[in-house]
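Hi all, long-time lurker, first post. I run a small reading group and we've been trying to get comfortable going from sequence to structure in the token notation. Rather than ask abstract questions, I figured I'd post a concrete chain and ask someone more experienced to write out its structure so we can walk through it together at our next meeting. Sequence below, copied exactly:
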Amino acid sequence: MHFRLAVVPEINHLSALVAEAFNHYDLYQQTIGQTFLKTADYQRFILQLHAVHIAVNVHLKKVFVVEAQQQIVSVVILDSPQLPTPSIWQYLKHGGLKLLPYVLKHQLGRFLKMLEAAEKVPQQDQLANWHINMLAVNPAHQGQHIGSKTLTQYILPYVKQHGGQQVSLITNTARNVAFYRKNAFQVIDERWLAFQSTQIKSWALVRQL
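-- Answer (accepted) --
Happy to help. Here is the structure in token form:
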């Protein structure tokens, strides 16, 4: 397998891959997903949301992919004090205007504010901290330990090579918590995220390098 930066011509492919990987993720389905009456409309929203997120971060050189046999098997977005923070202008430039209807009809602004607050929890103290903003495994390659290999063989060595002292992330499923604990991450925070009348559990985890 090979670990490298994603490039601009791959944005559409990566967006579709990530949208499929997260289509049934509790964070989306149990919160903003409940505001959609039709499954097809919800799926289009998930694709557009990730298309904007992927496009912005590819241009900022924060998206990495793992390839095996010329196929992309996982996608990673990394945040750190060494990497640029996206601006509102960059989100608008790379498709953010297409999300405006979801702000009005589906409370996207509230959802993103909730998510941003949760992401900040494990990043508040350490300047050397790196954060896994996203780790998505290609659905066609799930069940092959791709997530574990991506984490241990590529993400953690890359962060350590670039001076990182710890890696953090958040997740919203107990299954993922067990996976990261098995890979030496420790839970540093547990809380409930509120969206309308729904609450979903959020865990923040950190691993020292």
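A couple of things your group might point at:
The two ends are 23 Å apart (CA to CA).
Strands lie at 2-5, 63-68, 71-79, 129-137, 166-171, 186-195, 198-208.
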